Amino acid sequence: MASPAPHKLPVIEFTANNSKRGATSWYKACNEVVSALEMYGCFVAVYDKISEETHNGVFEQLESLFDCPLETKVQNKATKPLFGYVGQIPMIPLHESMGIYNSNTLEGIHEFAKIMWPGGNDEFSEKILTYTKLSVELERIVFEMVLEKYGVGKYYESIVGSANYLCRVMKYREAKIGENKVAFLSHTDKSFMSTIHQNQVDGLEIQAKDGEWFAVDNLSTSSVVVMAGDAFMAWSNDRVKSPRHRVTMNGKTSRYSIGLFSFLENVMVQTPEEFIDDDCPQLYKPFDHLNFVEFYSKKENLALKDGNAIRNYCGL
């Protein structure tokens, strides 16, 4: 018997021909997006608006940022759990990251830059903002396609209107001889949706439904991994599952990535009635997204970090 084909994330191109409702290939793209999300919980989007210049500019700035002294980087503090500096953790010594909230606004990025550099850093702010705006734009296109395919477009404004964006800038250094190559442990995102853009160093791995782990590699400078978070899974009544993923460093070069994570504020997230029937009963109670993040972050809930946190928080 032949071995099953190896897993590979679907790659979907987003261009003027398919990215707007009424465009030539809009409905075809809607089908491809939902099929990929239902199969893997994520896919690779090739977004032609992310130019090589934008890509290079972002990662030049990230390298400069992570060269800042540690005592400066740890000043990236946040009132929301898991939104500030993360690093110097013995279990994952290769990982270091920082968070920028309200990251699709110049004000949000300026506030972060003023902590890192005396007087701020206009070049950093402008180049990061260029990327985050494009990433938000892409996520909203994807979400509109999901709603179109499921026939629930009336919910677009209420969801998008409540979304705020955390930008996490991440560095994974190369593993030293004898050091564990797992740079970030297996997890699901607690966001509504996430977009991940990396430099030309691979490391991201996804777990398929059959339990097999596979690499996401050979990404172009216009490629973004679009991923459903736990909040999206609950909202969709498990039509789309948030995928488990991790980072493994096999090379000899540091990996930089920039992730944008959407969180729904000042609204109760609830499953649309259209997703609930006798065959698919309601699985989750309405919930406050940021309260869920707080619940997940508490030490006494460490045992729930196996992918069941959202179900333990608001499952029926």
Keywords:
alpha+beta; single chain; 316 residues; four-stranded antiparallel sheet; 9 helices; 23% strand; 32% helix; Jelly Rolls; eight-stranded mixed sheet; 14 strands
Question: Short summary of the structure?
Answer:
The chain is an alpha+beta fold and 316 residues long. The chain is built from nine helices and 14 strands. Strand 8 (204-207) and strand 9 (213-215) form a beta hairpin.
| Element pattern in H and E | EHEHHEEHHHEEEEEEHEEEEHH
The description of the largest β-sheet is:
8 strands, mixed
Bulk shape: globular
CATH topology group = Jelly Rolls
Helix residue percentage: 25-40%
- Over the alpha carbons, how many angstroms does the gyration radius reach? 19 Å
What's the β-strand tally? 14
Please report the number of helical segments.
Answer: 9
The CATH homologous superfamily is called B-lactam Antibiotic, Isopenicillin N Synthase, Chain
Report the CATH architecture.
Sandwich
- What is the highest CATH level, the class? Mainly Beta
Instruction: List the strand order in the largest sheet.
Output: 1-2-10-7-12-5-4-3
Distance between the termini: 42 Å
Counting helices, strands and paired strands, the structural category is alpha+beta
- Low-confidence spans: pLDDT under 50, at least 5 residues? none
* Beta-strand proportion: 15-25%
List the helices and strands and how they pair.
Blueprint: E1 11-14, H1 26-40, E2 42-47, H2 52-66, H3 70-73, E3 86-87, E4 95-101, H4 106-116, H5 122-150, H6 156-161, E5 163-172, E6 182-187, E7 193-198, E8 204-207, E9 213-215, E10 223-228, H7 230-235, E11 245-248, E12 255-264, E13 268-269, E14 287-288, H8 289-297, H9 309-314
Parallel strand pairs: 1-2
Antiparallel strand pairs: 2-10, 3-4, 4-5, 5-12, 6-11, 7-10, 7-12, 8-9, 8-11, 13-14
